[in-house]
Design goal:
Length: 90
């Protein structure tokens, strides 16, 4: 696998993990008991914690990508195995 393909796959994994991590620990203005800012929805988050979420996203995405890359390099799972699993080959 070329390094550009690896970067592209890591980028896709990172974004997918980011969308899974975004809801972690979010509390709305209403839930946190804070005064609701005029012009905002009561369900809008009061504190997003985005820097911590970016760090966690990078850690989780790196572990996942490392596991998939190791499986690819050592040929634990091949494309023929996946095609057979999905019923594309008999």
């Amino acid at each position: 696998m070329s390094w550009t393909t690896s970067i592209a796959i890591y980028f896709i994994v990172w974004w997918t993990v980011l969308f899974a991590v975004l809801p972690w620990g979010v509390r709305s203005q209403y839930e946190s008991g804070e005064e609701i800012e005029p012009g905002t929805d009561p369900g809008a988050p009061s504190v997003t914690g985005l820097p911590a979420k970016l760090v966690w996203t990078t850690i989780v995405a790196s572990v996942l990508f490392g596991a998939f890359y190791a499986a690819y390099v050592t040929r634990v799972v091949t494309l023929d195995d996946l095609a057979t699993l999905w019923g594309l080959l008999r």
